[in-house]
Amino acid sequence: MRNLLLTTIIAATAATGAFAQSASDTAKARRAFYTLVGFEMDTLAGMAQGKIDYDAEAASATAKDILALTAYTTADLYAPGTSNDDLPGETRAKADIWANMADFQADGMAFYQAVVELNDVAGNGLDALQPAVGKMGGTCKACHDDFRAKDF
Ligand code: HEC
User: Fold this and answer.
1) Which of 20, 80, 99, 130 has the highest count of CB atoms within 10 angstroms of its CB?
2) Whose Cα sits closest to atom 26 in ligand 1?
3) Ligand 1 touching residue 140 (CB < 6 A)
4) Does the Cβ of 136 fall within 6 Å of ligand 1?
């Protein structure tokens, strides 16, 4: 459902080409979005790896924040003309994203599923948190391997 909606929005916006923001500002906003995802992930990974103490309330709140971020409609962050071919040095988003939107969205759905599962267990102790964070982290890596360039 969510990925269908995203496809529709991208198709619609691509057709009209009507974007108020510059390509550079779009890449900046996209990176800011992932900065937030990464910021929250650092807390969970820190707990999972024993670098910071497990805290059920903090783990639950952090998982909830990531879930909130998955509700963000990212279609406008992926406006056409904002890949690393278009904006060298400004973004690591590969042009493959736009060429293989269905695969990109499948990676996004796997991430979303893992975030939902994480939210179910984050408050249930470190032993429950660890595998769920690991699984979610695997979905981050999968999308980065497929669609994020190593360097700018
Ligand atoms: C569906 C694909 C996808 C998923 C899932 C995903 N990312 Fe990313 N991420 C990207 C892309 C694409 C970029 C590059 C954005 C750019 O440079 O414009 C990126 C960039 C980033 C960045 C760098 C931001 C910057 O400053 O340039 C961080 C940090 C990050 N992701 C963390 C995460 C974490 C942590 C997760 C999982 C909890 C995650 N991402 C899940 C696609 C994804």
Assistant:
1) 130
2) 31
3) yes
4) yes
